[in-house]
From TrEMBL:
It comes from the Bacteria. Keywords: DNA-binding, Transcription, Transcription regulation. This is LacI family transcriptional regulator. It comes from Curtobacterium oceanosedimentum. The keyword Transcription regulation applies. The lineage of its organism: Bacteria, Bacillati, Actinomycetota, Actinomycetes, Micrococcales. The keyword Protein biosynthesis does not apply.
């Protein structure tokens, strides 16, 4: 039976420690770790599978009691050695297909559906989705939900999807400048971004072009509702994920599996919610 105490160390690997979403998630995890007498070692995979493998091996060598991981993809084979030797693994921000591992995540298909419903409600029809690499399951799910509502609505709406190379402000700026360079008739009248960093970059590019008003010409909707969303020049509407709660509950789930007799994996799933601000105000 594992002794809970100062020496009990947990490894945590997040996708992008520079993204405020994961900083907030780590804050929730760290608070819960303190409550449970656990120490956390934080690793940043930075969306790189090789970096993720390095951290998994490092945590394996250090014989951590548990691992919290937001995986870079849905290929979880690298985690098997840990599970085989009894390390408790909890997936964070992603729900696995198989239930070998516990998970604490958000229903991102539902989040994408909320986004399309909102943009159709404010009478936008020329919709664009700006995402990151489609290898990221969270991004894929958001686009799937978005497209599903648009096709169900039967509205004469269409979706133009852009696959960015990263989920960063800089990438949002790059794609935003491409859109701003188009003739007005060829531009979308609303953009759904896979996260707030992309949305903030898009908004900066539109406003700096001097020819696009937000939301009058193009509405912008983000995802995560990071603290900065409300202080963007045009306050950003966003599909909110409970980042702090995700982190806090993932450590609780881990601790319960350490100590509890019931080691059966559990899947906890949260629903995101729409936070409407000026960037999608009805025209
Ligand atoms: O960094 C990748 C994105 O996936 C974050 O913004 C958050 O939305 C996570 O789910």
């Amino acid at each position: 039976q594992l002794r809970m105490g100062r020496s009990t160390t947990v490894g945590m690997i997040v996708l992008d420690v520079g993204n405020p979403f994961f900083a907030e998630l780590a804050r929730g995890a760290e608070d819960a770790a303190l409550e449970h007498g656990l120490a956390i070692i934080l690793g940043n995979s930075n969306h790189s599978i090789s970096r993720e493998r390095t951290y998994v091996d490092l945590f394996n060598e250090r014989r951590v009691a548990g691992l919290l991981i937001s995986p870079t993809s849905d290929d979880l084979t690298a985690l098997e050695p840990l599970a085989d030797q009894g390390t408790t693994v909890v997936l964070v921000d992603q729900r696995p297909d198989d239930s070998r591992f516990s998970s604490v995540s958000v229903d991102d298909v539902y989040g994408g559906r909320l986004a399309a419903q909102h943009l159709l409600e404010i009478q936008r029809r020329r919709l664009a989705f700006v995402g990151g690499p489609s290898s990221i399951p969270q991004v894929r799910d958001r686009l799937d939900g978005f497209r599903a509502v648009v096709s169900e609505a039967g509205a004469p709406a269409r979706v133009e999807a852009f696959e960015g190379s990263a989920l960063t402000v800089l990438e949002g700026r790059r794609i935003g400048e491409q859109l701003a360079a188009r003739p007005a008739a060829d531009r979308p009248d609303a953009v759904f971004a896979a996260n707030d960093l992309l949305a903030i970059g898009l908004e900066q590019a539109f406003l700096m072009s001097g020819t696009i008003r937000v939301p009058q010409d193009v509405a912008i909707l983000g995802y995560d509702d990071i603290a900065f969303a409300q202080s963007a020049i045009v306050p950003l509407s966003s599909i909110r994920q409970p980042a702090y709660e995700l982190g806090h509950r993932s450590v609780q789930t881990l601790a319960r599996q350490f100590t509890g007799s019931d080691r059966a994996p559990v899947q906890l799933e949260f629903l995101p919610e729409l936070v409407q601000r000026q960037s999608t105000a009805p025209a």
